[in-house]
Amino acid sequence: MPTPKIPDVLATRLSEDLPAQAAFPWNRAKWEAEIHDVSDAGSVLRTLPDRLDRETVRGAVQANLSRDRVLGAFVPVLIWGGPGGYGPFRARRILTGVATRGNTSAVVDDSIRDRLLSGAERARQAGAAEGFRFMNNEGKINYLGGAFFTKWLAFLLNDQRSRRSRGCSHPR
Length: 172
What we know:
Blueprint: H1 8-15, E1 24-25, H2 28-34, H3 41-47, E2 51-52, H4 54-66, H5 70-81, H6 87-96, H7 111-126, H8 128-136, H9 146-156, H10 160-165
Antiparallel strand pairs: 1-2
Helix pairs in contact: 2-6, 3-5, 4-5, 5-6, 5-9, 7-8, 8-9
């Protein structure tokens, strides 16, 4: 299936520099309670500052991916994308596939790590459209929709130039 052409208005927008983002606070205690058993995530949470912005999250994603800490890289993306009170529950739901309250004891689905990593590799090698296609089809993760997996794909790329050259949107 050929990759569709990016609309001109979107291509123009993607070529612009990212606007500065004000850092926002996040609730470390709520996140720690929900991801207590997620490999590598606890150590990541302890290293994140009390206020997050786009570049801090990008740095955490890059640092953790370089150490093969895929879930540790993914959690900061979820915090950035859902800083409100619902974010920690949403993260637990994605990581376990269990959508009910009280899912804190549900087991983390080990296959999620592999699907996130495969989506990342496809985006890096074949471009964002292929990463999107994979994450939206055979790499689909329950409760992880396009609004969040596109953030994952965008944050895993190193800088604005590499994002542009691969046709990947930047997170907002």
